[in-house]
Structures are given as structure tokens and as C-alpha cells.
């Protein structure tokens, strides 16, 4: 373990400058894209905010799937926990301060991550996938049963967040929610770039590549993965809280298998194992879905299916992964 | 300062919409996915209304914009409603098959100055969420209450209630229980089963064991209802004479070809049957069948959509095409007309329809097709769900 | 006591129907290592073909089953050539993306071609009605489904364990390169076993249609059920899948009889418990 960490420190030092530059470029890119989105679609900020909220979920999924190699089709449990916690804080406890609501979502997401991790890490491969499916159904049923708290299948409505910092109201046009979402995303992204490059992040990657070797080197596989699961839960919980604040309603769909599967599709579409892949996958998938479902609300599913097939055929590592690989190859050739 | 700028932008956006010649109506519904059939019926009802009455109210052309929310998804519904209002500049929001989707959009109405016409979502409380909500469908309380009287009239004293464990199911259970117990019957057992149930044999065993004379059921239409009705037959409950009672969602016309013989004898109460005998309905069915393509797919959401369009046309008439949600809603309060389902009135208090509820029995017609045969009328039924205090 | 028997019969019937519908997935997923989420889509195609054959062409039930199985395989061949071949050996997540894409497309096309209503497959007179077991009656088609399940289980077991093809298949699964070097035409073996998997999906779709009715959303609605059953059994194991179906069918049916309100809890709690005890599925092989 010590050896590994030392080695990583050496590696980290050598590449720190380029890595920091790259992260800065990444953050600037997010700001630029967010700004362009604001200018190009000023009338569609609700969709853009929703994309950001889902981006948290996909980033969070990337942490466990892309960096730790855990297969899960139940990740919406973490997102939904955050959404319901933030919503219930507002509806039942009168906590309407948006930043506090996000913190509540973060904590609830982390707790859900702990529970999910404790169950899902008990198997590998396909059985692991099925554990996660069982888990999301249990979460869903629980929320449905506790309808006096969650509103059941009618949804939890009556969430009334206060103006942000006492100044900016969450209104019809959704500007406040959008800017709030972008700022949250920047903060989380900056933190995550550090996390994945830290010795801890490297250890997770190592476990993904070869858990037996890591164990032989004295690394605590289960507890490391569980810690990553908790971090992942916190990230998803922030997304859930953002969703609850911006839409002011939480439905059972936020704890559904469908949302879990969709987030996995978005992640794989963008490319696993890189934070950028998660972001790009979310933006492309949701933007494409909005485009085709508005163009033909009746038969758009076929188009989405075709997109997924085309991506597998022509960009098997996902959009970002394949593009990155292409440029690396070109770079090497030179 | 910020607020003034926003107000200015809002005024600009709204005024430009108000004087435009085209009036846009945004319709949100399930147009793909597991409930695509119901969304298709929305569109058929809207198309039928436009086919019969033209797409113009005075000088104003009406344009309908559809947005798809395949499954209950309040966040998505709200985002789309926002998009419709701000980007597309719709003056009316309509559709809404699921209660949570409608609930999610109600907080927008006041700020957006847009009325909402609900064409299906059947939970009583939605109309209380905003004064700009008008509903042209039914509520589960409204359609589930009369069946209790029917059961008592047939001399049934003990009933077991079986519903799917979600909002409408729970509503139906409560409505039936309240009405049946008031009428002097007893609900011996009330079972709520998970939505995702494939095999109903164990439930049938429960019904048998309960010793009830009849079963009251509410499940989502489609595969779930089909499975339940089949199991009811195969496990000998029909032979044993256990009467099947339900609100009419279960025997919607589009499911009858699949249900077939198994459904005959089921008693339901509902606001609309495609077979309803009136000149208005004949004209409606003809237009809607043409709009939907395959007449066998026609069922109740189409009539909610048809009447919804009627209300929207009246609103446009009253406001002269200007965007004024309050005036629009005020104008249709107390409005009465002959709907394809019979005479209806918008109750000025609740903004929900007062309408006839019919007792129907699934029967085989002379042409060999199954239909809901209306055998009794409960006139001018309001919505008991609101006073029941949920 | 009578109730216990009665519930047991229901459990057996439900478990066997699950088995018939899911076993094709166990073949593609366990033997070919393809996470085929489009399994339900192929079962649905089988159901649609059979429904069309009986209702519109007026063919008999047996003929409809045959046409459905071969028709579905025929439809699947170009899909295998063009799409599946590209994902053999790919990471699981890539396979998930591809097969979900295929499922979306098939749902969209089915909705467009057949419309969103339920389609039934009328049963022949022999399979209608019910059989008296003495203490209760059971629908004849359920007995038929049980028989089909047993026949499929026996047939597959014989094919895999006792025939030359089975030897080649097992060799190709365990070490494709070595098998190829020893002269096994692995591409042919793969193509044939893919066809078997799809044919079984279609067969299950038709036989199970009484319980899981055919409509466009079928392909996604039951995907989780299929995946759970196969994984709990241990992908690729015929006895494992059979055992899983009977155990899960039993738990599901009993749970729904005793505590219908918590039916879902029971089923998924049982799934978690089983996988925690048998992390590779009931009959999973160590790899």
C-alpha cells in the first residue's frame, strides 16, 4: 500500500502541471458551454437545468462504474434519495434555504450510497447487476409505501425553495436554477478531478484493473470501493437536490430502474472512466432525445435506438473515449 | 433591478404572443412507451374536434403542439411545460394523462398566465392546486362511487377490494369503501398489490378464501387488467358467481378485443362508453375513428381531449385571442354543453365536470365484437373526492 | 393444507412459465457471453408473428408456434450478422448499449406497425378451459406451459451435454482460440447457438403470452424479470435456471398470497439474499 502510494506520488508530481492545466481547461470548457447554452437557448433553461441535474447522476455513476468497474443498474437510488431528502426537508420541515437543501441532498445521497455499496459490492459481474436492480426496486417500493412522507405515486409537491442567497428567486424562466446548477457543477467537477487523481482515486483504478493484485499488495479493496460509493452518493444526491429545487416536485421516477438504465446508457455513450465522457454523454443523449421527441413525439424511440447502435458501431469506446483515443493515436504518429 | 428587467422581458414575450394570429395549445401526454395508446387517444380526440369544428376561432388559428412524457415523470413534465410556455409561446396547456405530471405543472400557471385543461389525470385534488386548472375528464372517486350502489341494489353485502398500489388504485379503494359502507355493505378485505404483478393466481386464492360475494378491482388498463381478468376466469371465480365490479378504466374499449369472452358480465361504472347512443357521440366516433386510423384503438381519453378542446375554443372565444388566464377560466365556469358522453357542466366551484355516470356490462354485440353496454344512468354526478377530504 | 397445495401448484406453474420465457437468455448470456437485453424484444416478435398467423391468417396454433420460432430466427439473422457480431467479446457495457439500442428500435417499429394495443394469441380448443386436479382446477394452458418447460429443459440438457455440437459449444465457450485451433468452426457454433437462443425466446414469447401479453412495450417491461431469473440461476446453466425459476416463482407466489401488499419487497429481498449467499448464482461456475 505504502509503496503504491509513494509510486503514485512520484507519478503525480511529474504530471501535476499538465494535469492541472487540463483540469483548468475542463472547467473553462464547462463555463463556455454553459454560457453558449444560456445564450442560444434562453427559452429552454428548464431543459438545460435538467441536463445538469442528470449530469450529476451520470458523473456519480462514472465514479463507481468507470473508475471502480462496478456494474450497476440501480444508481438512481442515490439520486432519488437526494431528491426526496431535499424535497421532504422543504415540505415537512420547512427547510427552504436552497444551499441547505443541497447539503441535505448530499448527505442523504451519501447514506444511500453507503447502503447501496454495502449490498452491491457483495457480488461481481452479472449477479452484481441484478443486486443493484433488486435494490432500486426496493427503494422504489419503499418510497411508494411511505406515501404520507413522499406523496407516493402522486409525487411530492409543495416544495418551495427560498430565493438563492436571499436575492434570486426560482422563477418560471429558470435562470436562477440554471446558474445555481452550473456553479454547483463547477465546484463538484473541480473536486472530482482532484479525487480521481488522488492516491485514493488511483487505488480505485487499480482495483478495477486487478483487485487480486491490490489485495495482495495490502490494499483494502472493499472499504476503498465503499468509500468511493459514498462519494458517488454525495454527488448524485446533489443532483437530486438540484432537481427537487428547480422543478419543485419529486416523483417516483427519480427512484426508478428506468432512470438508472438511462444514466448508464448516457455514461457508456459518452465513454466510461473519464469525467468528460460522463458530461458529454449526458448532454448528447438528453439533447438528442429532446430534439427527436419534439420533432416526432410518437415514434422518436426508434431514433434514440439507432443513435445507440451507431455509437457502438463507430465509436465503441463512447463518444469522448473514442475521440480521445483517435487524437492520442494521431499524436503518437507525429 | 433584476425584477424589472424580468418583468419587461415577460411583458414583451406575453404581448407578442397575445396579438399573434396563431394561438398555440401545448399538449403534454404519453405519446410513446407503455401508455402510447392513451396518448394516441388524446391526439385522436383533438384531431376529431378540429376536423369537426375547423381550426379557427374567429380570426385566430389554433395550433396544437405535442410533447411526450412516456411515463409519470413530474420533473420532465414541468420542464416541457416551461419550454412550451416560454419557447413556443403557448397560451394554453392541456393533456396530462398522469396526476403527478399535472401537479408538477400547476405552480407555473399563475406566473405564465396560462390556463390548464386536464384531459385525463383523475386525482380529485389537482383542481385545488391552482385556480387556473379546469378538468374535462373524470375523477376516480366520481367513477368508483356509483358502483357501490349497484352492488347494494344487487343484494351484495360482502365485497373484497383489490387494487394496484398507486395513487388511482388507492383512490378507487377509498371511494368504493366509503360509498359501500355508507350503503350498508361491508368490505371484508382490502388488498393493495404491487403494480408490477404478472401472475394473479395467488390473489384469486385470496379472494376465494375471503368468502366475499363480489370483488371490486382497480388496476391499470392493458397487460395488468388482462392478466387479472384471465386469472379471475381460470381460477373459477366467475363460475362460482363472484361478481366482478370495477370503474370503467378496466374495460376500456381498446382492451376489449384482447379481453374478449373473459370480460363478459363484468359490471363497471364510468363516464363514457364508445357505444353511447346519441347523435353527438355518433358524430364524434366517426371523426375520432378517422383520426386514430384503427377504430378498435378508440377509448375514453379521446372524449376527455375532445371536450378539452371544446373548452379551449370557448376560452379563446371569450378572451378574443388575448392571453388572459383569469378571464378564460372565468368564462367557462358553469359552462354546459352536450358532450359525446351526454350532458356536462363545469362546476364553477371545483372547475371539474358534473356529468352522468353510466353502469355498463361487457357484452357481445351482434357483429361479434365486445362492447360496454350501458344499462343504467346516474345523472349529474359531481366529484365526491374533494369533499371526502382526500 | 389444501391452500398450501393450491399455492404450490400456482408457484410451479408460474415458475415454469418464467423458465420457458427466460431460458433463451440464459443461452445467449451464459454460453455466448452476450448481455442480450434485446431478449424480450425477440420474444415479443415471436408473439406478434404467432398472433398474426392465428388471427389474420387463420392458421392452427401449432403451425403458428413453428412460424413464430422460424420467422423470428429469420429476422434475427441479419441483425446477428450486422450488429451482434460486432459486440462478441466486447466489454459488457458496450453490449448493454447495443442491445438496448436494438430494443428501442424494435419497440418503435412494433408500435408503428402493429399499433399500441394488446395482441392475443387465441388458444386451440384443447388448451382452453381448465383441468380438475381434485382439490382445485388449473388452466389447461398452464399445464401445457409446464410441459413445454420440461421438454425445453430436457432437450437443451441433452443437446449441450450429450451431442457433438454440445461438446464443440462448451469448448468454444471455455476457450474460443483453442477450440478454433483444434478445428472447431467457432463462428458456425456461435451462429447456431445464437439462433437457438433467439428461437427459444420466440417460443417462450408465444407460450408465455397468456401470462405476459404481447404489446410493444413488452420488450422493456419484462426485461428485468428475465435478467434476474437468469442471473440468480447462474447464466448458462440449464438446471440452475430451472431451479431459480422454481425458487423465485415459489417465493413470489407465496409472498403474493400471504402478504400481497409487500409482494415486491419479498421478491427482491429474496433475490438479494440468494445472491449474497451464492455470489455466482445458484449454479454458477467459478471462472
Q: Any overview of this molecule?
A:
The complex is a heterotrimer of chains A (334), B (390) and C (287). Chain A has 334 residues and is mostly helical. Chain A contains 14 helices and 2 strands. In chain A, α3 packs antiparallel against α4 and α3 packs across α10. The N terminus of chain A is likely disordered. In chain B, 41% of the residues lie in helices and 23% in strands. The N and C termini of chain B lie far apart (43 Å). With 287 residues, chain C is mainly alpha-helical. Chain C has a single domain, classed as ABC transporter involved in vitamin B12 uptake, BtuC. Chain C contains 12 helices and 2 strands; from the N terminus they run ααααββαααααααα. Chain C has a two-stranded antiparallel ribbon with strand order 1-2. The longest helix of chain C is centred in the N-terminal third of the chain and has 30 residues. The chains are: A mainly alpha (334), B alpha/beta (390), C mainly alpha (287). Chains A and C meet through α5, α11 and α13 of A and α4, α10 and α12 of C.
Describe the sheet with the most strands of chain C.
Answer: 2 strands, antiparallel
Examine the secondary-structure arrangement and name the CATH architecture of chain C: Orthogonal Bundle
What percentage of amino acids of chain B are in beta strands? Answer: 15-25%
Derived from helix and strand composition plus strand pairing, the structural class of chain C reads: mainly alpha
- Highest CATH level, the class of the largest domain in chain B: Alpha Beta
Oligomer: heterotrimer
Q: Assign the CATH class of chain C.
A: Mainly Alpha
The CATH topology name of the largest domain in chain B reads Rossmann fold
Summary tags:
heterotrimer, A: 334 residues, mainly alpha, 77% helix, 1% strand, globular, disordered N terminus, C: 287 residues, ABC transporter involved in vitamin B12 uptake, BtuC, 12 helices
How is this fold's topology laid out?
The complex is a heterotrimer of chains A (334), B (390) and C (287).
Chain A: H1 2-40, H2 45-65, H3 76-93, H4 98-120, H5 125-145, H6 147-150, E1 156-157, H7 175-197, H8 199-209, H9 211-216, H10 221-247, E2 249-250, H11 257-270, H12 275-295, H13 300-314, H14 319-333
Antiparallel strand pairs in A: 1-2
Helix pairs in contact in A: 1-7, 2-7, 2-10, 2-11, 2-12, 3-4, 3-10, 4-10, 7-10, 8-10, 11-12, 12-13
Chain B: H1 2-18, E1 22-29, H2 36-53, E2 56-57, E3 60-68, H3 74-86, E4 92-95, H4 99-105, H5 108-112, E5 116-118, E6 133-135, H6 140-144, H7 146-153, E7 158-164, H8 167-182, E8 186-193, H9 201-210, E9 214-218, H10 223-234, E10 243-247, H11 256-259, E11 267-270, H12 279-292, H13 301-319, H14 325-332, E12 336-339, E13 342-346, E14 353-364, E15 370-381, H15 384-387
Parallel strand pairs in B: 1-3, 1-4, 4-5, 5-6, 7-8, 7-9, 9-10, 10-11
Antiparallel strand pairs in B: 2-3, 11-14, 12-13, 13-14, 14-15
Helix pairs in contact in B: 2-12, 2-13, 3-4, 7-8, 13-14
Chain C: H1 2-31, H2 39-55, H3 61-82, H4 92-114, E1 130-132, E2 137-139, H5 140-162, H6 164-174, H7 176-181, H8 186-207, H9 218-221, H10 223-233, H11 238-258, H12 263-277
Antiparallel strand pairs in C: 1-2
Amino acid at each position: 500500500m505504502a509503496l503504491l502510494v509513494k509510486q503514485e506520488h512520484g507519478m503525480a508530481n511529474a504530471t501535476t502541471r499538465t494535469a492541472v492545466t487540463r483540469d483548468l481547461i475542463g472547467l473553462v470548457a464547462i463555463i463556455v458551454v454553459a454560457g453558449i447554452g444560456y445564450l442560444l437557448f434562453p427559452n429552454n433553461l428548464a431543459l438545460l437545468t435538467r441536463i445538469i441535474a442528470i449530469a450529476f447522476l451520470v458523473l456519480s455513476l462514472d465514479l463507481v462504474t468507470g473508475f471502480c468497474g462496478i456494474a450497476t443498474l440501480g444508481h438512481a437510488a442515490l439520486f432519488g434519495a437526494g431528491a426526496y431528502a431535499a424535497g421532504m426537508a422543504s415540505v415537512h420541515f420547512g427547510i427552504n434555504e436552497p444551499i441547505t437543501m443541497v447539503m441535505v441532498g448530499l448527505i442523504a445521497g451519501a447514506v444511500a450510497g453507503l447502503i447501496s455499496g454495502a449490498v452491491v459490492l457483495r457480488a461481481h459481474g452479472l449477479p452484481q447487476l441484478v443486486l443493484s436492480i433488486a435494490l432500486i426496486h426496493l427503494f422504489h417500493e419503499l418510497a411508494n409505501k411511505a406515501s404520507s412522507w413522499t406523496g407516493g405515486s402522486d409525487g411530492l409537491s409543495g416544495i418551495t425553495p427560498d430565493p438563492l442567497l436571499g436575492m434570486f428567486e426560482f422563477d418560471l424562466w429558470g435562470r436562477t436554477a440554471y446558474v445555481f446548477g452550473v456553479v454547483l457543477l463547477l465546484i463538484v467537477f473541480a473536486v472530482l478531478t482532484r479525487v480521481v487523481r488522488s492516491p485514493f482515486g488511483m487505488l480505485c483504478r487499480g482495483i478495477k484493473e486487478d483487485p487480486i493484485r491490490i489485495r495482495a499488495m495490502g490494499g483494502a479493496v472493499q472499504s476503498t470501493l465503499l468509500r468511493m460509493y459514498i462519494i458517488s452518493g454525495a454527488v448524485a444526491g446533489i443532483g437530486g437536490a438540484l432537481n427537487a429545487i428547480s422543478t419543485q416536485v419529486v416523483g417516483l421516477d427519480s427512484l426508478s430502474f428506468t432512470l438508472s438504465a438511462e444514466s448508464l446508457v448516457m455514461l457508456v455513450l459518452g465513454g466510461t472512466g473519464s469525467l468528460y465522457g460522463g458530461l458529454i454523454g449526458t448532454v448528447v443523449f438528453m439533447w438528442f432525445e429532446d430534439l427527436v421527441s419534439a420533432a416526432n413525439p410518437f415514434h422518436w424511440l426508434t431514433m434514440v435506438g439507432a443513435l445507440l447502435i451507431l455509437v457502438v458501431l463507430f465509436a465503441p469506446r463512447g463518444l469522448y473515449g473514442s475521440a480521445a483515443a483517435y487524437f492520442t493515436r494521431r499524436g503518437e504518429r507525429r | 433591478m433584476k425584477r424589472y428587467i424580468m418583468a419587461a422581458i415577460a411583458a414583451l414575450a406575453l404581448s407578442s404572443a397575445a396579438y399573434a394570429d396563431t394561438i398555440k395549445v401545448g399538449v403534454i401526454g404519453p405519446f410513446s412507451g407503455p401508455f402510447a395508446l392513451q396518448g394516441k387517444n388524446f391526439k385522436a380526440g383533438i384531431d376529431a374536434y378540429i376536423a369537426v369544428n375547423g381550426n379557427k376561432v374567429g380570426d385566430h388559428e389554433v395550433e396544437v403542439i405535442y410533447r411526450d412524457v412516456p411515463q409519470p415523470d413530474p420533473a420532465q413534465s414541468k420542464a416541457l411545460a416551461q419550454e412550451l410556455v416560454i419557447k413556443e409561446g403557448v397560451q394554453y396547456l392541456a393533456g396530462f394523462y398522469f396526476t403527478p405530471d399535472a401537479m408538477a405543472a400547476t405552480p407555473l400557471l399563475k406566473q405564465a398566465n396560462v390556463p390548464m385543461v386536464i384531459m385525463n389525470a383523475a386525482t380529485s385534488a389537482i383542481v385545488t392546486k391552482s385556480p387556473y386548472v379546469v378538468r374535462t375528464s373524470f375523477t376516480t372517486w366520481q367513477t368508483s362511487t356509483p358502483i357501490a350502489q349497484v352492488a347494494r341494489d344487487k343484494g351484495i353485502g360482502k365485497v373484497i377490494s383489490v387494487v394496484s398500489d398507486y395513487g388511482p388504485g388507492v383512490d378507487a379503494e377509498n371511494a368504493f369503501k366509503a360509498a359501500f359502507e355508507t350503503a350498508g355493505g361491508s368490505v371484508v378485505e382490502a388488498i393493495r398489490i404491487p403494480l408490477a404483478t404478472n401472475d394473479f393466481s395467488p390473489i384469486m386464492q385470496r379472494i376465494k378464501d375471503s368468502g366475499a360475494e363480489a370483488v371490486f378491482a382497480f388496476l391499470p388498463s392493458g397487460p395488468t387488467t388482462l392478466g387479472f381478468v384471465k386469472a379471475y376466469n381460470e381460477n373459477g371465480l366467475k363460475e362460482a358467481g363472484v361478481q366482478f365490479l370495477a370503474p370503467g378504466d378496466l374495460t376500456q374499449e381498446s382492451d376489449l378485443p384482447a379481453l374478449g369472452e373473459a370480460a363478459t358480465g363484468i359490471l363497471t361504472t364510468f363516464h363514457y362508453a364508445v357505444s353511447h347512443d346519441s347523435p353527438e357521440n355518433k358524430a364524434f366516433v366517426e371523426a375520432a375513428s378517422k383520426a386514430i386510423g384503427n377504430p378498435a384503438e378508440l377509448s375514453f381519453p379521446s372524449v376527455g381531449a375532445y371536450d378539452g378542446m371544446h373548452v379551449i375554443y370557448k376560452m379563446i372565444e371569450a378572451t378574443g385571442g388575448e392571453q388572459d388566464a383569469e378571464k378564460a377560466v372565468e368564462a367557462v365556469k358553469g359552462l354546459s354543453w352536450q358532450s359525446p358522453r351526454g350532458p356536462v357542466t363545469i362546476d364553477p366551484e371545483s372547475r371539474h365536470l358534473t356529468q352522468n355516470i353510466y353502469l355498463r356490462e361487457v357484452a357481445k354485440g351482434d357483429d361479434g365484437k365486445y362492447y360496454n353496454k350501458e344499462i343504467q344512468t346516474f345523472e349529474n354526478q359531481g366529484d365526491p373526492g374533494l369533499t371526502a377530504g382526500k | 393444507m389444501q391452500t398450501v397445495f393450491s399455492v404450490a401448484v400456482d408457484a410451479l406453474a408460474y415458475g415454469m412459465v418464467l423458465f420457458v420465457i427466460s431460458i433463451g437468455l440464459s443461452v445467449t448470456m451464459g454460453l455466448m457471453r452476450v448481455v442480450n437485453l434485446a431478449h424480450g424484444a425477440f420474444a415479443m416478435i415471436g408473439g406478434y408473428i404467432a398472433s398474426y398467423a392465428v388471427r389474420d391468417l387463420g392458421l392452427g396454433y401449432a403451425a403458428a408456434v413453428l412460424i413464430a420460432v422460424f420467422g423470428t430466427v429469420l429476422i434475427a439473422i441479419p441483425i446477428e450478422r450486422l450488429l451482434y457480431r460486432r459486440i462478441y467479446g466486447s466489454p459488457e457495457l458496450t453490449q448493454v448499449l447495443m442491445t438496448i439500442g436494438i430494443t428501442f428500435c424494435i419497440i418503435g417499429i412494433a408500435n408503428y406497425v402493429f399499433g399500441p394495443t394488446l395482441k392475443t394469441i387465441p388458444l386451440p380448443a384443447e388448451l382452453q378451459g381448465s383441468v380438475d386436479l381434485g382439490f382445485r382446477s388449473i388452466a389447461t394452458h398452464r399445464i401445457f406451459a409446464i410441459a413445454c418447460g420440461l421438454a425445453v429443459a430436457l432437450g437443451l440438457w441433452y443437446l449441450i451435454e450429450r451431442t457433438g455440437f454440445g461438446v464443440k459449444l462448451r469448448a468454444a465457450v471455455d476457450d474460443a482460440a483453442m477450440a478454433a485451433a483444434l478445428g472447431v468452426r467457432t463462428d458456425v457454433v456461435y451462429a447456431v447457438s445464437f439462433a437457438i437462443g433467439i428461437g427459444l425466446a420466440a417460443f417462450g414469447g408465444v407460450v408465455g403470452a397468456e401470462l405476459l401479453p404481447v404489446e410493444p412495450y413488452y420488450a422493456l417491461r419484462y426485461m428485468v424479470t428475465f435478467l434476474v431469473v437468469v442471473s440468480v440461476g447462474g447464466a448458462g446453466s440449464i438446471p440452475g435456471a430451472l431451479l431459480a425459476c422454481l425458487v423465485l416463482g415459489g417465493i413470489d407466489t407465496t409472498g403474493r398470497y400471504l402478504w400481497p401488499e409487500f409482494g415486491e419487497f419479498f421478491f427482491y429481498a429474496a433475490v438479494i439474499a440468494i445472491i449474497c449467499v451464492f455470489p455466482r448464482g445458484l449454479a454458477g461456475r467459478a471462472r
